[in-house]
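Example 9 (inverse folding). The structure is encoded as follows.
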């Protein structure tokens, strides 16, 4: 059995997809409906938007496109921020808070 962890995108729940998975060795496991801490891409996109879009005005689409391309072509520019943002340090509700977080 192959387990695939998915977000809750609608296409995973379509009738055609469900019928395919019923006879497949693949089992879909869904994240909770809103779980940005479990879905790293959500944190990445939030950082991308904050870095490229927020409080910025672009004269043209070409300027907007250039800003997006610069972000993705030079990922090491934000290396420190991304390393701390995309960690797997998760706190489970009800668990005792780690000592170094107090």
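The amino acid assigned to each position is listed next.
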């Amino acid at each position: 059995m192959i387990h695939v962890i998915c977000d809750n995108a609608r296409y995973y729940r379509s009738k055609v997809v469900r019928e395919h998975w019923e006879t497949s060795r693949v089992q879909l496991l869904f994240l909770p409906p809103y779980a940005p801490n479990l879905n790293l891409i959500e944190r990445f996109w939030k950082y991308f938007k904050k870095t490229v879009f927020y409080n910025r005005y672009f004269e043209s689409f070409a300027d907007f496109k250039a800003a997006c391309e610069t972000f993705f072509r030079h990922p090491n520019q934000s290396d420190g921020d991304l390393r701390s943002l995309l960690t797997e340090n998760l706190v489970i509700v009800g668990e005792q808070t780690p000592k170094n977080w107090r």
